[in-house]
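Weekly structure sync, notes
Attendees: PL (lead), two postdocs, one rotation student
Agenda item 3: pending single-chain targets
PL asked that the sequence for the first pending target be pasted directly into the notes so everyone works from the same version. It is reproduced below exactly as submitted, 270 residues in total.
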Amino acid sequence: MSNLLLSLLTFVAYGVLAAYFWRAHVRGDGDLLSRGAIGHLVLIPLAMHGYLLIQDIFSGGGFDLGVLHALSLIVWLTLLVYWVARFFYPIGGLQTLVLPVAAVVVVLPELFHSDHLLTNTGLFAFKAHFTVAMLAYSLFTIAMLHAVLISQVEKRLHNATLPRVLRSLPPLMTMETLLFRMIGIGFVLLTLTLASGVVFSEEIFGKAWQFDHKVLFGFISWGVFAVLLWGHRFYGWRGRVAVHWTVGGFVLLLLAYLGNKFVLEVLLHR
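Predicted structure, written out during the meeting:
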């Protein structure tokens, strides 16, 4: 079976599950998606998506991590984290929102394929750096989604027009607790990513460390999340303040990695 055909089947599987989950929330059965056996069905497209990522990223014995592969991997990790978290929190509504995104990103690398092979990928330092970086991006992606949802829930509560898909979410205080836990863990992982990139640049990338715009955006994003955690710890920042800082930090982080890749690969064809 070709990768394109498998990606289309995965697209359909994600789409069917997204539609089923959405209808369940409309009927008011959203909590069953977090605790019931039906939630395990997500593992089917997740496994297919994971196989495609392995085939695409490690194609030809190399390591190809173009912008579309990176985006697909981040969304895959995000959905995987949500699937694990469903055992502890009623977050079926969050899976419903991510599934359509996963359906789209799984086919993009197959439709718009571009080679972007990296070097020194067999080294332990590179593997550790890459793993930590992808986990950090995934956690901050989830944190950004949480922040947007918190903002929407707060806004809709005042107007008493909360959609059913959001009614099954945990209370706002629980959502904010989850938000800062994810930001805290993501901040530690981002710190390790930046530190390892500086200290082990030659081992990881095969060249001396350089202060470029990618590094600049990465450190600014780190500073934004550091200030947010500090403000939350000592001044009790929450609500809209936390949402704005989270979204701002995530946008900067996105510019540091995916934005850099987009400019090089899509606009400059490098």
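Discussion points:
- Confidence is low (pLDDT under 50) at residues 263-269.
- The chain has two domains: 1-113, 119-270.
Action: rotation student to compare against the earlier draft before next sync.
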